[in-house]
Amino acid sequence: MKTKTGRYDRRVTLIYPSGTKVVDGVEIINYVDGTTVWAAFDVRPPKGQAFRQAETEHVSLTRWIKIRYLAGITSKWRVRYSGNGVNTVYEIVSPPIDEEMMHRDLYLEIKVVE
Protein backbone atom coordinates (compact mmCIF):
# COMPACT_ATOMS: atom_id res chain seq x y z
CA MET A 1 0.00 0.00 0.00
CA LYS A 2 1.55 3.28 -1.10
CA THR A 3 1.32 6.42 1.01
CA LYS A 4 2.41 9.99 0.45
CA THR A 5 5.59 9.50 2.47
CA GLY A 6 6.65 5.98 1.67
CA ARG A 7 5.67 2.35 1.58
CA TYR A 8 4.70 0.19 4.50
CA ASP A 9 7.21 -2.40 3.38
CA ARG A 10 9.10 -3.49 6.51
CA ARG A 11 7.88 -5.69 9.33
CA VAL A 12 8.73 -4.42 12.80
CA THR A 13 7.85 -5.76 16.22
CA LEU A 14 6.77 -3.31 18.88
CA ILE A 15 8.09 -4.36 22.27
CA TYR A 16 7.03 -2.97 25.61
CA PRO A 17 8.53 -2.83 29.12
CA SER A 18 7.34 -5.53 31.49
CA GLY A 19 9.02 -5.26 34.86
CA THR A 20 12.72 -5.62 35.52
CA LYS A 21 15.25 -8.43 35.77
CA VAL A 22 18.70 -8.69 37.33
CA VAL A 23 21.59 -9.48 35.00
CA ASP A 24 25.08 -9.72 36.54
CA GLY A 25 23.85 -7.83 39.59
CA VAL A 26 22.38 -4.97 37.54
CA GLU A 27 18.64 -4.39 37.36
CA ILE A 28 17.50 -3.82 33.77
CA ILE A 29 14.12 -3.35 32.15
CA ASN A 30 12.65 -6.50 30.63
CA TYR A 31 11.00 -6.00 27.21
CA VAL A 32 8.30 -8.28 25.86
CA ASP A 33 7.09 -8.67 22.29
CA GLY A 34 3.87 -6.80 21.66
CA THR A 35 2.62 -6.82 18.11
CA THR A 36 4.22 -7.06 14.69
CA VAL A 37 3.17 -4.43 12.15
CA TRP A 38 4.11 -3.03 8.75
CA ALA A 39 6.18 0.16 8.84
CA ALA A 40 7.48 2.80 6.45
CA PHE A 41 11.08 3.77 7.30
CA ASP A 42 12.78 7.14 6.81
CA VAL A 43 9.60 9.08 6.21
CA ARG A 44 9.48 12.85 6.55
CA PRO A 45 8.59 14.03 10.04
CA PRO A 46 4.96 15.02 10.52
CA LYS A 47 3.93 18.63 10.05
CA GLY A 48 5.47 20.95 12.61
CA GLN A 49 8.20 18.49 13.60
CA ALA A 50 10.66 19.47 10.87
CA PHE A 51 11.20 22.87 12.48
CA ARG A 52 11.67 21.34 15.95
CA GLN A 53 14.03 18.77 14.53
CA ALA A 54 16.20 21.36 12.78
CA GLU A 55 17.03 22.99 16.11
CA THR A 56 18.08 19.88 18.04
CA GLU A 57 21.38 18.08 18.22
CA HIS A 58 20.02 14.54 18.18
CA VAL A 59 18.67 14.91 14.67
CA SER A 60 21.53 13.01 13.04
CA LEU A 61 21.06 10.11 15.43
CA THR A 62 17.34 9.65 14.89
CA ARG A 63 15.08 8.61 12.06
CA TRP A 64 11.33 8.52 11.59
CA ILE A 65 9.11 5.56 10.88
CA LYS A 66 5.39 5.47 10.33
CA ILE A 67 2.97 2.70 11.28
CA ARG A 68 -0.79 2.36 11.19
CA TYR A 69 -2.42 3.85 14.28
CA LEU A 70 -2.36 1.73 17.43
CA ALA A 71 -3.58 3.00 20.78
CA GLY A 72 -1.38 2.69 23.86
CA ILE A 73 2.09 2.99 22.36
CA THR A 74 4.35 5.31 24.38
CA SER A 75 7.94 6.50 24.27
CA LYS A 76 8.79 3.74 26.77
CA TRP A 77 8.26 1.12 24.05
CA ARG A 78 10.91 -0.06 21.60
CA VAL A 79 10.90 -1.20 17.98
CA ARG A 80 12.74 -4.29 16.73
CA TYR A 81 13.53 -4.68 13.04
CA SER A 82 15.01 -7.86 11.64
CA GLY A 83 16.13 -7.54 8.06
CA ASN A 84 19.03 -8.71 5.91
CA GLY A 85 20.22 -10.97 8.73
CA VAL A 86 20.52 -8.06 11.16
CA ASN A 87 18.40 -7.66 14.29
CA THR A 88 18.24 -3.98 15.34
CA VAL A 89 16.42 -2.56 18.35
CA TYR A 90 15.41 1.09 18.41
CA GLU A 91 14.15 3.17 21.28
CA ILE A 92 11.30 5.59 20.71
CA VAL A 93 12.84 8.94 21.69
CA SER A 94 9.75 11.13 21.80
CA PRO A 95 6.02 10.57 22.27
CA PRO A 96 4.38 9.00 19.20
CA ILE A 97 2.61 11.53 16.98
CA ASP A 98 -0.93 10.98 15.76
CA GLU A 99 -0.90 13.60 13.02
CA GLU A 100 -3.99 15.79 13.14
CA MET A 101 -5.50 13.36 15.69
CA MET A 102 -7.01 11.34 12.84
CA HIS A 103 -6.11 7.87 14.27
CA ARG A 104 -4.77 6.74 10.89
CA ASP A 105 -1.00 6.68 11.33
CA LEU A 106 1.56 7.02 14.11
CA TYR A 107 4.92 8.65 13.54
CA LEU A 108 7.71 7.31 15.73
CA GLU A 109 11.03 9.08 16.14
CA ILE A 110 13.55 6.34 16.85
CA LYS A 111 17.27 5.75 17.40
CA VAL A 112 19.35 2.63 17.78
CA VAL A 113 19.66 1.31 21.34
CA GLU A 114 23.31 1.38 22.35
What's the main sheet like?
Answer: 6 strands, antiparallel, barrel
Number of strands: 8
Provide the CATH superfamily: Bacteriophage SPP1 head-tail adaptor protein
What's the arrangement of strands in the largest beta sheet?
Answer: 3-4-5-8-7-6
Return the CATH class: Mainly Beta
Describe the global form: globular
Structural class: mainly beta
Description:
By secondary structure, the protein is mainly beta. The chain has a single domain (2-112), classed as Thrombin, subunit H. It has one helix spanning 49-54, and strands spanning 2-3, 6-7, 10-23, 26-41, 63-68, 78-83, 86-92, 105-112. It has a 6-stranded antiparallel β-barrel. Strands 1-2 form a two-stranded antiparallel ribbon. The longest helix has 6 residues, at 49-54. It starts with a strand and ends with a strand.
Q: What keyword list fits this structure?
A:
114 residues; 1 helix
Topology overview:
Blueprint: E1 2-3, E2 6-7, E3 10-23, E4 26-41, H1 49-54, E5 63-68, E6 78-83, E7 86-92, E8 105-112
Antiparallel strand pairs: 1-2, 3-4, 3-6, 4-5, 5-8, 6-7, 7-8
Summarize the structure.
It contains one helix and eight strands; from the N terminus they run E-E-E-E-H-E-E-E-E. By secondary structure, the chain is mainly beta.
